[in-house]
Amino acid sequence: MGSGLDIAIVLAAGEGTRMKSSTSKVLHTIAGRSIVGHVLAALAPLSPKDLRVVVGAQRESVEAHIKEIASHATTVFQAERNGTGHAVQLALDGVKVGGNVLILAGDTPLLTSFTLQEFLDAHIASKNDVSVLTAQLPDPTGYGRIIRDEFGGIIRIVEERDASEDEREIDEINTGVYLFNAEALTSSIHKISKNNSQGELYLTDVIALIKNESNKAGAIFSNDYTETLGINDRSQLAECAAIMRDRINDGLMRSGVAIIDPTTTWIDISVKIEADATIHPGSGLYGKTTVAKSAVIGPRTTLTDVSVGCCATVLESHCTAATIGDNANVGPFSFIRPGTVLAAGAKVGAYVEVKNSTIGEGSKVPHLSYVGDATIGSGSNIGAATIFVNYDGVDKHRTVVGDEVRIGSDTMLVAPVTIGDGAYTAAGSVITEDVPAGSIAVARSKQRNILGWVLRKRAKTASAEAARKAGATE
Ligand code: UD1
Ligand code: CA
């Protein structure tokens, strides 16, 4: 028997019928990682020399995903789902096996490397031919039950459907994680039969076979049953996602991140957050998002693939594929779209949408604006309700705004157009031509006041009366 892990087999051929989904069960995600991805991630530190994943239902998409996340894994195709025993027969077919074989299901995403390593160590120490990882469940319905003898040794595993009423009372269950001595497994795996209520080849029957043959079968109890929860439907998916969310948040809080309401804060496993950052309630941080120290995120903020600098604040906003610099301020109610880069100290305020634009150091877009395909220099101010008119109906064009520019409120910057350093635009202007540095562009019609118009055309109205009181005459 080897001292490490020689072969790991992940069973993932099932249909996942109860998910009622067009996506394979094991490709559904928790914390930004597929269910089978979590299983493979937990396995990775055990460094199995040979990693095999049995695929069947939705073969193409599952195989492609496995190739992407674990290129060293071999996928084995199980064309017909004849049971877990059949899946293992196929996985071992033509493989030169020796040492330890770990078998687990692809639908138990909460298993940790720590537990798997402990299980492996215990199995090796026991010198058994097979060890089964077991757990005690508050509700064991649906799981295989562990039948032990009067000395506490495992005799066999009985599936719920094949169990007697007494056996169903047992709350110690088979987690579906096993370690085998390779020779013992290969010599017994072809001896199992379909003699059960489902007419399938049960991997669990191998345990009784080994027990009878060599008496070297053991059950190893896992204290944290939540690790062994399997996902069969969407409500179990949500249950496992909540447990994973708590784990991730606990880890972050222990590392110094302030999470005000962990139950409403959803952070992908891939996200990195530095100590002293604060995450307010109702926020979701996804993908490759990173948050530097002392930044404040939320409440109710969504960040996907966003990098947030030190001491920046992002309040009630939705941001994707963007960089938010040190000390920058975003929100409330900002929409930051892909390709946005906010330099240090930049500000994007209420009801502002920014797309594919760079906003320079200390520049501000405080209110009610659309900034698309723009490059804005440093120290500039974009007045309220300014629109960067980037789309001519066919193509997108860029706008360049220099340093220390003052764009008047309600300006239309019709791209392509360039506003030179230190230039101004008058409020309400529609700017279609470049504005040279240091000049002011006024692009609106001159104001006319038609005196007494209200008194003549809107006589007897409240407005006319107010005007008369103020001394206006016809
Ligand atoms: C299985 C165990 C049960 C255990 C439970 C733990 C058997 C007979 N029963 O039951 O004792 O308590 O897991 O979760 O093993 N699969 C294949 N090919 C097949 C059938 C299944 O690859 O032909 C895969 C599935 O995709 C799944 C795993 O094996 O990932 C377990 O199969 P599933 O049908 O979910 O078994 P359970 O009824 O949950
Ligand atoms: Ca299952």
From TrEMBL:
Protein name, UniProt field: Unannotated protein
Domain Nucleotidyl transferase: residue ranges: 8-268
GO MF term list: glucosamine-1-phosphate N-acetyltransferase activity; magnesium ion binding; UDP-N-acetylglucosamine diphosphorylase activity
InterPro entries the UniProt entry points to: Bifunctional_GlmU (IPR005882), GlmU-like (IPR050065), GlmU_C_LbH (IPR038009), GMPPB_C (IPR056729), NTP_transferase_dom (IPR005835), Nucleotide-diphossugar_trans (IPR029044), Trimer_LpxA-like_sf (IPR011004)
SUPFAM superfamilies: Nucleotide-diphospho-sugar transferases (SSF53448), Trimeric LpxA-like enzymes (SSF51161)
Biological process according to GO: cell morphogenesis; cell wall organization; peptidoglycan biosynthetic process; regulation of cell shape; UDP-N-acetylglucosamine biosynthetic process
Phylogenetic placement of the source organism: unclassified sequences, metagenomes, ecological metagenomes
Gene3D superfamilies to which the protein is assigned, alphabetical: Hexapeptide repeat proteins, Spore Coat Polysaccharide Biosynthesis Protein SpsA, Chain A
Keyword Mitochondrion: no
Ranges where the Mannose-1-phosphate guanyltransferase C-terminal domain occurs: 322-413
Pfam families in the cross-refs: GMPPB_C, NTP_transferase
Keyword hit for Acyltransferase: yes
One GO cellular component, as annotated: cytoplasm
Coiled coil: none
Pathway it works in: Nucleotide-sugar biosynthesis; UDP-N-acetyl-alpha-D-glucosamine biosynthesis; UDP-N-acetyl-alpha-D-glucosamine from N-acetyl-alpha-D-glucosamine 1-phosphate: step 1/1; Nucleotide-sugar biosynthesis; UDP-N-acetyl-alpha-D-glucosamine biosynthesis; N-acetyl-alpha-D-glucosamine 1-phosphate from alpha-D-glucosamine 6-phosphate (route II): step 2/2
Catalysed conversion reaction: alpha-D-glucosamine 1-phosphate + acetyl-CoA = N-acetyl-alpha-D-glucosamine 1-phosphate + CoA + H(+); N-acetyl-alpha-D-glucosamine 1-phosphate + UTP + H(+) = UDP-N-acetyl-alpha-D-glucosamine + diphosphate
Keywords of this entry: Acyltransferase, Cell shape, Cell wall biogenesis/degradation, Cytoplasm, Magnesium, Metal-binding, Multifunctional enzyme, Nucleotidyltransferase, Peptidoglycan synthesis, Repeat, Transferase
Essential cofactor(s): Mg(2+)
Listed CDD domains: GT2_GlmU_N_bac (cd02540), LbH_GlmU_C (cd03353)
